[in-house]
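Ticket #4471: structure export looks truncated?
Reporter: QA, pipeline team
Priority: medium

Steps to reproduce: submit the single chain below to the structure queue and open the exported record.
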Amino acid sequence: MSEDMRAPINKYTITNLNLRKEPSKSATIITVIPAYSRFELIDSDDEWLKVLYDNQIGYVYKDYVSATKMTTSNVHLRTKPSKDSQSMKVIKKHQEVEVVDQDGLWSQGFYDGKLGFIYSAYLSNDGAKSDPDPDKLAVFYMDMTKYVNDNKIKSPTSFLLTTDLKAKQTYVFEDNKGTWKELYRWPSTIGAPVTPTITGTFHISGRKPYFGTDRYQVKYATRIKDGYYYHSILYDPSGTRIIDDRLGEALSHGCIRLAPENAKWIYDNILDGTTVVIH
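Actual output as written to the record:
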């Protein structure tokens, strides 16, 4: 597996969690990490995280790990899920919070090593205050070219990626003298309802030629954020035979699956920093 590494960041377990030798539920258990324990993230894939805990490196299953959210404005970290409870700290806008639980209007999470409660309305995947207004989203779903040009979406490279989760399609746009021109439109498989694809505006941040487990392998993985990627449909663990070629469905672990040739095109041509918009 390619190690395309950034600086390690801290995450937390949300329950007692097995640290395993390999990214597999049948792999040897190194130790059990207690609930709400901090560990260092080394690398992230679709289902598994490679981590450092208590001077031991292993793999933990993503579903039982804190979710990274960003504050949309200055917000209080409170001792209890109530606006009347004591404020432990004011978290500034666009700071990352590791959410371990959500109950109604409140999220419980860690910030700067402190566990407290934050009003969920002030957290999002990308730090934006809310989704675009309904009229703008209607254009996003009906006429993507109009949406990206009317809203003057910026990208630091000559390309722009968007994914329409309703139509389950991914678009590639190229800059044509200051106007976004649709280059490709591809059928895509997105996150299942219980493991949804993140929404918002992100920027490509690395890539891997492949990753996988003892059950499957995916190829040409281009990172959207954290463990969310554009990548190929599923191959067998050796990467020689396609075992699931379904596109246009909602069944992934949050990543966006594409036909191998399309995933390879993104892997080969889309530079780090390129803007990605997903709704």
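Status: closed, not a bug. The export was complete when the record was re-opened. Leaving a note from the reviewer for reference: The radius of gyration is 19 Å.
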